[in-house]
Design brief:
The complex is a heterodimer. By secondary structure, chain A is mainly α. Chain A contains 25 helices and two strands. Chain A has a two-stranded antiparallel sheet. In chain A, a hairpin with a 4-residue loop joins strand 1 and strand 2. By secondary structure, chain B is mainly α. Chain B contains 28 helices and eight strands. Chain B has helices spanning about 5-30, 55-60, 90-115, 145-170, 175-195, 200-215, 225-255, 270-275, 280-300, 305-310, 315-325, 330-335, 340-345, 345-365, 375-395, 395-425, 440-455, 460-475, 480-485, 495-520, 530-535, 540-555, 560-565, 585-610, 620-625, 625-630, 635-685, 690-715, and strands at about 125, 130, 135-140, 140-145, 480, 570, 575, 580. In chain B, helix 12 (about 330-335) packs antiparallel against helix 16. The chains are: A mainly alpha, B mainly alpha. Chains A and B meet through helix 7, helix 9, helix 12, helix 14 and helix 15 of A and helix 2, strand 2, helix 6, helix 7 and helix 27 of B.
């Protein structure tokens, strides 16, 4: 029930926003976000993810298309629940942030924010592949409009690029989903997990399926070289939306790597680990170096996001407990840290209409509170000990070093790049005398803003000193993942038996399950998103499209 | 509270001081709040003029290394310009000082407790708080003789410098901020030396880097200050990166980062466990080398020393505390802390010794040419740190820590003295504009003279004993039988007469440049202008008291039984580490004492009588290319700029402009237009004829079936 509630609440409040008077929309939205957050916290407190327990809990199963074994199955493991809590928290933060800053079309704005909240939470809690896919795509729609309507000067181009890029990426995932269905005969993730342990995929099949997922998630995460949409989208979106994009939505990618890569397909994840580690390390280096060259605060932060999520990917595919735990933790940490940084960038933008570094300078003196809070966020971003990011990065790198010393060592140089780009940013924005007229007129933070950033600050230090609060709830799931990968490593080290196994299987039910996919495809490929490129691979979708939810056309 | 939790209290007291001053300080001192100019109407925004991105980059980053030394260097006491009188100075400064002083008292208690412990295992471990469960890492503190000694230095010298700062920073707007930073530094420094595992050590390690960054950039309005702050942090980060990798490798082979405990890295059991686990030959060598690279960052050794001279942009007491007495010795502490790892690898030991010695020589030569009083002291610090690493490299860890202690006394004294001079001179740091200050600043002169004699190694003073210990060990050191048995590879001893000879030459240089500094500053004819002459005054008691105390310590510090005290730390598997040398020691002592006097005498000859404090006119100096080379710091900074920084920046720009924008984005942009094109074609298919839709549906079904069949075939194979 709790999971359904988490999904329904933001939708209800989004509708309420639509019907509320324009000036009240924000209050309704704030209430909705807070209630959702409270429920998510309640869920987390009641959740026991300690080692040895079941991986997926709070499972709710409702049939949807029983013939195809598609269900509205919701539930969460530790990491999934953490992501839900993070999303709910960030939504509260951005609604709070937007309170005084968004002044036109408020109803739509807040309704869309809550819709984004709902769809992202939906994707994190979906335990059915089709449902996951739908939410994974659906969250693009509110994001698209939020960027396109309330964004910066170049908003329309950025929004389109963002939309097209991510949609194309996820189409490949659809093939993988269908392939999994063909193999397992169900879309239910927990069931698929069971089937896969009884009846493993042939290695190359598994690898292809994994790669299909990987493309979608790499795009969503913004891994190099799939990141092109990211700097534009982050820089052009209004600050509140950027926070949700980088803090919550990008986590769909890393989380997807975790759930569908490491947890579901450990053999393939192990085989592809060198590839994924390479991408992760490249993202760290590339993001860091390019960030140092940027002259706009929001672009620095955008590229730094690429770099930081590179760490997460390195940890996920390290195949060790510290690595994966660290990666899960770092997903939350990144949401908090980059969220705070983007909010501060938004506050600066709201005051002087620019975040270009040459428009700034002297803020340390002019706006001391903003300066100090940015310092804290900066320290968290460079991974200074006692802040949250240090714990995450330390665990990730240490975990990766155990299996892949070379990759880990190169990834560790990330601490140098992050120091360079963040400190250069900080120096240019903060230090020096306030000389520019706009800066000299700048007001320091309001009480509202202080309390908002204060909450982030508390989290930064709390999670830096007591990460156990989060680490333990992910234990059961991470242990399962590590066990899976460890077994995969063992299987890979004795190839002969591996070759024999698939040969025995074919006479099983494969032909029977092969028939449904032809019809299974349609509901699975809603692409409720408008447009053209969906026709490429989803020719047969049109008939069933009307049955799909209204995300596409709604807003 | 359990007595074994006393170390937590030691650490947390300065943190409390920090929090009080960070939150209330500005209010207490009544710092003026920034007044924004008339606020804007809500919707007027300052759009930036379309920026020429490229043009900025060259001037954007004024390389810290390029701020020449010739010109009058922005006033150190930048605060003297806008005269601001903070309120409640006594309260704000008092809170900071008292919190550190209380820490000091507790440290003394701990010290005595440790000293009074019987047996081999002299250590106190506090309770552990869970931190990173997946690797079994806890928040925990440990005190043993080595860290107890560091505790005393940090809190003792620290409280003196806090006291001094009340006077020195008395007119600064950032009075409260300064003390908050200073307390924060003490907090992290204590964590560094008290960490019971290497991760806790790393917390302190990075934390002091942060405090150093904040204090170097304290006068944030000055561009050179913020540039130096960034440089310090980033260069340190290079070392930190190496240190991190070393920690990961240690975890891989030892299975823990704890120093003590069941399988601690420093324990015999831990070493055996690692050996059984297959601690590979390569790791035996590269782990200590990585640790040393980390140490080289923090302790300003080649190749990472360039940040320290720039760090003199910070207020002078900061230079005394962080960049002379405590933080920069963190690297030496790290090497001594992990010495079993170093002793296992003779190669690493050799590298440590040679790098230390080369750094000592290089920095000493540069110190001979500098004209900025603080820069002389900065290079002198780099040089002395090199000595300490020389000691580590020949296995004389006790001598290294001994020198850490005595150096803390006399270098803090010298920096505080130079601060007193700068304070009196109204911010002037150029020695060419000083001269003859002896009469005006008698206390400063007297105490600094003691410091100079101590650092020069004049027999009887602190520096003589510790430096002599290092030189003697460098000459020849033989491992005792126990050590030889434990570490067969170093059984032959580690010293070498060549190390001694070069070390001796550096001692001579040290005496020379310190003599030069003192003579140029205090003797000869005054070279300052009339305005400065009016301003000249001896510092108030709050500043001279620390000078007196430190001078006393510099006098007697050599007689403290420091080496003996920390022996149990530098000690492994039950036997003390003695690197013996024979009766030659007496001869070496005489020689090194003589060299110190010679150096001072030569300086006296050159500068004592020179009227303008200059030995050679500038034109003549520049004629010597070697002088020019040394004056320009052997061009190391320029080398880094040209070979590392600039190409790095070009590469990053290329990554952005070419790889990112043109290649990656270009390719996908191509995708985008391709899709758009496809879309326009497809649009024609949507003709509205049901027939066409049916056709496309059929095509789709066929495609999916084919796909499914293919999938089956792949699956079957």
């Amino acid at each position: 029930m709790l999971m359904t509630l988490l999904l329904i609440l933001p939708v209800l409040f989004a509708l309420a926003c639509g019907f509320a008077p324009a000036r009240q929309a924000r209050s309704v939205a704030l209430l909705g976000a807070m209630v959702t957050f409270a429920v998510s916290i309640f869920t987390l407190v009641g959740f026991s993810g300690s080692a040895g327990g079941p991986v997926y809990q709070l499972v709710e199963q409702r049939p949807w298309f029983p013939a195809l074994k598609i269900g509205i199955n919701l539930g969460a493991d530790g990491p999934g629940l953490l992501m839900i809590v993070l999303t709910a928290f960030l939504t509260v933060a951005v609604v709070w942030y937007s309170y005084e800053k968004v002044t036109f079309r408020e109803k739509e704005y807040y309704a869309l924010l809550l819709a984004l909240d709902a769809t992202v939470i939906g994707a994190f809690s979906a335990l059915d592949l089709v449902l996951f896919y739908i939410f994974f795509e659906a969250c693009l729609v509110p994001a698209y409009f939020l960027i396109g309507i309330w964004g910066g000067r170049d908003r329309v181009r950025a929004a389109t690029k963002f939309f097209v890029y991510t949609v194309v990426g996820s189409l490949v995932m659809l093939l993988s989903i269908i392939a999994l269905y063909i193999h397992a005969g169900t879309f239910d993730i927990t069931e698929i997990q069971d089937v896969l342990t009884r009846k493993p995929l042939p290695p190359e099949m598994g690898l292809f399926i994994f790669l299909g997922f990987a493309v979608a998630f790499a795009v969503k995460t913004g891994l190099f070289p799939f990141h092109t949409w990211l700097p534009d989208a982050y820089a052009e979106a209004p600050a509140a939306v950027t926070v949700l994009l980088s803090g919550a939505m990008a986590k769909l990618g890393t989380f997807g790597f975790y759930r569908f890569g490491v947890l579901l397909l450990p053999d393939a994840a192990h085989t592809a680990a060198p590839l994924m580690l390479t991408l992760g390390v490249l993202s760290i280096l590339f993001g860091g170096l390019v960030a140092a060259m940027q002259r706009d605060m929001r672009r620095v932060l955008a590229y730094s996001s690429i770099s930081h999520l590179g760490f997460v990917v390195v940890g996920l595919f390290a195949g060790t407990k510290p690595g994966i735990s660290g990666a899960v933790l770092q997903m939350v940490n990144h949401g908090i840290t980059s969220g705070m940084l983007f909010l501060i960038a938004g506050m600066i933008y709201a005051r002087i209409g620019s975040t270009h570094l040459r428009a700034l300078g002297g803020l340390w003196e002019q706006t001391p509170l903003l300066g100090r809070l940015l310092l804290i966020a900066t320290l968290s971003s460079v991974g200074l000990p006692l802040t949250n990011s240090f714990v995450g990065e330390f665990l990730i790198l240490l975990g990766a070093y155990q299996n892949y010393p070379f990759f880990a060592a190169v990834a560790t140089t990330g601490v140098i790049w992050s120091a360079i780009y963040m400190l250069v940013l900080f120096r240019k924005a903060m230090y020096g005398a306030p000389v520019r007229p706009a800066v000299r007129r700048m007001l320091d933070l309001t009480t509202n803003e202080i309390s908002l950033l204060g909450a982030f600050t508390v989290l930064i230090f709390l999670l830096g000193i007591q990460p156990r609060i989060l680490l333990h709830s992910a234990d059961a799931s991470v242990d399962a993942a590590v066990a899976g990968v460890t077994e995969a490593v063992e299987r890979a080290s004795r190839p002969p038996t591996l070759m024999q196994r698939p040969r025995r299987r074919p006479p099983q039910t494969e032909p029977a399950t092969a028939a449904p996919p032809a019809t299974a495809a349609p509901p699975a490929t809603p692409s409720p998103t408008e447009s053209t490129e969906s026709t490429e691979t989803t020719e047969s979708t049109q008939p069933t499209q009307p049955t799909q939810p209204t995300e596409g056309r709604g807003p | 509270m359990n007595t074994s939790d006393l170390p937590w209290l030691v650490v947390l007291l300065p943190l409390v001081g920090f929090l009080i001053n960070a939150f209330l300080g500005a209010r207490l001192t009544g710092s003026p709040k920034p007044v924004p100019e008339a606020p804007l109407p809500p919707h007027v925004s300052y759009e930036m003029e379309p920026e020429e991105e490229e043009a900025g980059s060259a001037s954007d980053e004024p390389a810290a290394s390029h701020d020449g030394h010739g010109q009058a260097h922005g006033p150190d006491a930048g605060h003297d310009h806008d005269h601001f009188d903070p309120k409640n100075k006594g309260l704000v400064g008092g809170i900071a000082t008292v919190s550190v002083f209380l820490s000091f008292l507790l440290s003394v208690m701990l010290f005595l407790q440790i000293g009074g412990m019987a047996g081999e295992e002299k250590r106190i471990l506090t309770g552990a708080i869970e931190w990173m469960a997946p690797i079994g890492l806890n928040l925990q503190l440990a005190v043993d003789p080595l860290s107890a000694l560091m505790l005393l230095i940090i809190t003792g010298v620290g409280s003196l410098i806090h006291l001094y700062s009340i006077g020195y920073m008395g007119h600064d707007r950032g009075f409260a901020r300064y003390f908050a930073y200073l307390n924060l530094f003490i907090f992290f420094m204590l964590l560094l030396v008290l960490g019971a595992n290497l991760a806790m050590l790393f917390v302190g390690w990075e934390g002091v880097g942060l405090a150093s960054y904040l204090l170097i950039g304290f006068w944030y309005r000055r561009d050179s200050a913020s540039a130096a702050a960034n440089k310090a942090f980033i260069v340190n980060r290079i070392g930190d990166c190496a240190l991190l990798i070393a920690l990961f490798a240690l975890y891989k082979y030892f299975g823990t980062l704890d120093l003590y405990g069941a399988k601690g890295i420093l324990t015999q059991a831990g070493q055996q466990f690692a050996d059984q686990n297959g601690y590979p030959e390569g790791a035996v060598n590269y782990v200590p080398l990585l640790l040393f690279l980390g140490a080289a960052g923090k302790s300003a050794q080649i190749p990472l020393y360039t940040w320290l001279p720039d760090a003199m942009e910070g207020p002078t007491p900061v230079s005394a505390l962080i960049h002379a007495a405590t933080m920069v010795t963190g690297g030496v502490y790290l090497v001594c802390r992990t010495y079993p790892l170093f002793l296992s690898s003779p190669n690493a030991m050799t590298v440590v010794a040679v790098v230390g010695l080369v750094t000592a020589t290089l920095a000493a030569t540069i110190a001979c040419t500098q004209t900025d009083i603080k820069k002389v002291l900065a290079y002198s610090t780099v040089s002395q740190l090199g000595y300490m690493f020389l000691a580590c490299g020949v296995g004389a860890f006790g001598a290294a820590m001994f020198h850490v202690a005595t150096h803390a006394f006399f270098k803090a004294l010298l920096f505080l003295g130079s601060g007193s001079v700068i304070h009196a001179m109204g911010g002037e740091q150029d020695m060419r504009k000083m001269g003859g200050l002896r009469a005006k600043l008698p206390v400063t002169f007297l105490t600094m003279a003691v410091g100079t004699l101590a650092i020069a190694g004049v027999p009887g003073l602190a520096g003589f004993f510790s430096k002599d210990e290092i030189l003697a060990n460098a000459f020849a050191s033989e491992a005792t039988d126990d050590i030889a048995a434990r570490f067969p590879t170093i059984a032959g001893g580690l010293g070498h007469p060549l190390l001694f000879i070069v070390g001796l030459a550096v001692a001579g240089l040290t005496a020379f440049y310190m003599g030069r500094m003192m003579l140029k500053t205090f003797m000869g004819a005054p070279r300052y202008d009339a305005a400065t002459a009016n301003h000249l005054h001896e510092s108030p008691a709050v500043m001279t008291l620390p000078l007196w105390i430190l001078a006393a310590l510099s006098l007697i510090g050599g007689f403290l039984p420091i080496e003996h005290f920390i022996e149990p730390s530098i000690h492994w598997r039950g036997e003390a580490l003695h690197l013996d040398f024979g009766a030659t020691k007496t001869v070496l002592m005489v020689v090194s004492g003589a060299v110190a006097l010679l150096g001072l005498g030569y300086a006296w000859m050159r500068f004592g009588s020179a009227k303008n404090g200059e030995y050679l006119p500038v034109e003549k100096k520049t004629a010597y290319s070697i002088w020019w080379l040394i004056y320009n710091k052997w061009l190391v900074d320029d080398f880094y700029q040209d070979v590392v920084v600039d190409p790095g920046r070009r590469f990053a720009r290329w990554l952005w402009r070419v790889v990112d924008v043109r290649v990656t984005d270009g390719l996908t942009g191509g995708w985008g237009t391709g899709i758009a094109h496809l879309a326009s074609v497809i649009r024609h298919w949507q003709s509205g004829y049901v027939r066409n839709y049916a056709l496309s549906m059929l095509a789709g079904v066929v495609l999916v079936v084919i796909g499914a069949l293919l999938g089956m075939m792949v699956g079957r194979r």
